[in-house]
Records
---
Amino acid sequence: MGQIRVDGQTIGTLAEFSGKIVTVLLEDRWFRVLHEGREIAAVPRRHRIEIGTYHGNPR
């Protein structure tokens, strides 16, 4: 099983997506994980990030 860690929360995906580049959508109440435009996982967020707070690596 693959895992993605976003904002301190672990999201599990199927093993076939392990090592792949995915997109994580941060919604008000959900994290949605997409691979090539298809949703592969969705989990409720444990807590909301305040507006103006940035988490992650700057590009």
---
Amino acid sequence: MNDIPFIPFDAGEAVLDWIGLTDALSAGHALPRAEIGDTFLYRGKDTLLSRAAWIDGLGIAVKSATIFPDNPAHGTPMINGGLNLYADADGTLEAIVDFHLVTKWKTAGDSLLAARRLARPDSRDILIVGAGNQGRALHAAYSAAFPAANFTVWNRTRANADAMAAELPGLRIADDLETAVRSADVITSATMSTEPLIKGAWLKPGQHLDLIGAYRPDMREVDDDALLRARVFVDSYDTTVGHIGEIKIPIEAGVITKDTLVADYYDLDQFKRTSNDEITLFKNGGGAHLDLMTSRYILDRWKARG
């Protein structure tokens, strides 16, 4: 075990960069399609996600996560878990990577890859919906690809938005979500809402929507109208269509069909705008294959930096 590296959060993060990660995610999707095994267990609003992926040529990753929304009120982190990375050639354990490091970079990097392809390059006003840890990661990721952008945050609880703005100089706070959505070029949302927060009626031509927060079958961040007004993309058909309310609910209601979805990342050439005026929408569903690609990138950078 002494020869197997454990990559902790701070030291691991110091060797990473967001653009490099999105390039690694692109390269990962050029390999054979991942074999994915997901298990979701629920107890009320508490969730256990066990996710495994195997990509021929890249290796195997197994990640387990517990999500207990009431934990922060008791001084305990809401999300806990761990990830093991195994070698492609012989299945031996290669590394244990800090769960939060992989999750932060995988989740925001997943969205950034889509934004680099779908958001207008001249996007200057980026709205972050949700002032949690993921909102902070999105600020860092989008700043790497849109260095001239102005950032605004909206959060249900104003005090949390204030705290985030205090940490990130230049970050503005929106008091009214509708007004903030109407004026943004890019909207990136990371909430745990089960009722749509963002209305299609608020959208304007040329916007890009990045939806992250919904991960359960009962969760949604936008309404049906937003889906109908946009060209809709997902990171993976396997992890979104039948599992996440953002896509699952409107398909089951007959509002959209699977054919409404333009592409997932295994058809990256389709991730492009057809005009400056169209609205693009990306559903970030995550998935163990993205954890595998991200953890492999982390280990490669860890080794490269000694």
---
Amino acid sequence: MKKNPTKDSIVEAAIALFNTKGYNGTSIRDIAGLANVNIANISYYFNGKQGLLEYCYIHFFEAYIALLEKVFRQNDTSPTVKLKNCIEGIISFQCQNPQLTRFVLREVSIDSQVVREIMSTYSVKEKYIFTKIIEEGIARKEFNRISIPYSIIQIKGFLSMPFIHSYYLKEVLHVFLHEDYFQKKYVQEINKWIDEIICTYKKELYTIN
């Protein structure tokens, strides 16, 4: 897809400001100033701040669901590998887009009409894919007979926690999301949890030098 520098700069500015000042604390003038564009450009591309917010949601969740669907369609792949590939793909995507991820995950915790619409579309698709993978794993005796809703809660926690608490990770734990080491190590830790808690048999221990 051909890039639009003006549109992209508006989105990048909006995400940065939404993260630091909050959605309500950010004005169209703030976004235009940081993006170095005319205010009219924001109206033209997004029909105002609300349209820009919805664009950020859609941009994030379309990519998120596309990753899950791509893995889900791998019919020759075992449920264990599918689950791990979903985890790795999402963590990689979120590490590449940390500010967008942080903003979206924070905003979807707030009850609003837009969030309810997201829950009725993207979140339902996400639940369906994780449910089907886990059900297949149980049916094939790869997975223990675990509670699917509670397992999804745990998986969602693994996927969101570093980005919601990125300041804590950086300032207290001295862990940095932009480092390749974090992504590699964190995925290994989640895979270890899958092997030891979800799977019916233990696999090789994961180590990192």
---
Amino acid sequence: MLTIHTAGLLLPGPGAAPLPEGAVAVEGDRIVAVGAYADVAEAHPLARVRRWPGLLTPGLVHPGAAALLEAAYHPDPREAQELGEEPLTGDRLAALGMDDARWGASARRGAQRLLRHGTTAVTGPFARAAVRMAVARAGLAQVVRQAPPGLAPALDPLPALPEGAAPDAAFAGALAPGARADFAVFDVPDAAALAARGAGSCVATVLAGRLVYRAR
């Protein structure tokens, strides 16, 4: 079924002009149209429409995913009282006595948390087979990008950008007909507000045309 996603402002890709009341039409796992909502809706009158608040952008790429998924433990919600909710590293990670099964479960939770921050692509490679499987099953794309040295594991990919870089430097690609339908929506009015509030403002993530995260 063809679905149109529309928001108050659309950023089609790095360096592209913002499009007020923009829209992306998706069929299957592909984008079939990008443009002003009125034009896209007129061309596809039978499409289902999802209206989102804020800013619609390409999905983000996380340059520190290897460290986040292979050198940090993401606690199960049932462990929150004992371990907290944030990724564990260093001595706290070493005390857990990790094995392959626990690394796989941690990576699955970590991947879901990345999706909740608008991430649709991650950098590799991943040394642990359990982590590679978790990334593949989540549907996250893998790209080749140099991670900044000494990058601390964090769920939000935006702080990893070079100082002064615009948020579109974190885009995994561009929204264009024929491209895989990977994008995110943030509850902010524009790119400047996204830079200020971070990717934790994500309200929806679409991965290969599927709505994989929606804030309640």
